[in-house]
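Bug report (template v2)

What were you trying to do?
Predict the complex of my protein with zinc ion.

What happened?
Run completed; filing so the output is reviewed.

Input:
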Amino acid sequence: MRPHRQMMWRYTAPQLRFSVFRRGYRVLAIESSCDDACVALLERSDGETVVVDQDKATLDSSADGGIIPTSAYTFQQQTIAPLVQRLLTKHNLFAENRPDLVCATRGPGLAGALSAGLQVAKGLSVAWNRPLVGVHHMLGHLMMPTVVTDGECPPKFPFISLLCSGGHTMLVLLESITKHRVLANTIDIACGDSLDKCARHLGMEGTMLGKELEKYVDSMTDAEKTEYAEISTEDRSNRFSFQLGLPLRKQQIPDGPVKVNFAFASFLSLLQAYKPPLGIDEETVRKFLAFKTHHTIFTHIVDRIKAVFRRYPELQDVQDLVVSGGVAANKTLRTLLTAELAIRNPHMKLHLPPPSLCTDNAVMIGIAGIELFENAGVTSDLSITPFANWPLDQLMDVDGWKPVP
Ligand code: ZN
């Protein structure tokens, strides 16, 4: 027996009234791709986006030594709905006074964690009779600096974005909201993951190990930093007998089919294999390793960006480079990039969003959702499922998109 099977699928889409969007509209955005549960309320009018409010809770994984997917799933299931309810109650947003668009992260990320946020978003979309946009998480990071600026001109298409976080390290050319070209990607782990793992190996503790490593390096005296910076680790002929070269250095082919890549896995394996020579105290060795590893990871990022510019000379005409993702707040990265652009691409403006907006948040999901809704003219079907993997250059090649009515 197949009761009413056809009936289930033969329905008429409700006629949405979009006149409200011409006057300005409100957007509820949800992010739940990993260990941050975030919700934001944005207001859009006259081409301007205002962040009305946002709320966030983060899973404490310090005892686990990293994020466990099942723990992230349970955390999002427990957290995201109450967080949304709190924001809606605070702003008196109910059926008669409901937001006009619901955005939620569809991927990439941890499938269970993503589905917790996406389900809440679908429920609200159905209950409020409002359209849903399933947003690409990285597109959120990439678009964030286009609206939250330091008071200067925001970047304009085409612009280059360096996304570096615990899950991703990639350099992307954004030609439009839907057209992206990945110029370089990591072939193993992300820079933030590498920083965390190296920091743990060096004895740092806490939830944000990469940040702890940065703090530890910052706490060294200027004399120590100068001394360590001057010691070459190209080979082992230094007093620490430590070798730490830049990965993929041989990839300096200026043209041809070779893709430029990042690689961050070797930093930890070199630290694990290292045996310090006799006669140097433990704390000095630890400081030296921390300084060199931290500095070399960021030097590698800048070195690969230089390789991309050699590989694709047409990029010299691009006017803006934005940095986004959780690692974008790192001061060493900011300093190295600023210095590099000042020498080789002085016409290119570097956009560094405030550190608080570089980590995962729901505002960026709202911003990317608005762009997809207004400029790409799409919304998502209620049948969409979360994607653990979703290549950025396949943003529009997946199921579930439908035109704005
Ligand atoms: Zn992220």
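What did the reviewer find?
Residues 282-311 form the longest helix (30 residues). The first strand starts at residue 25 and ends at 31.
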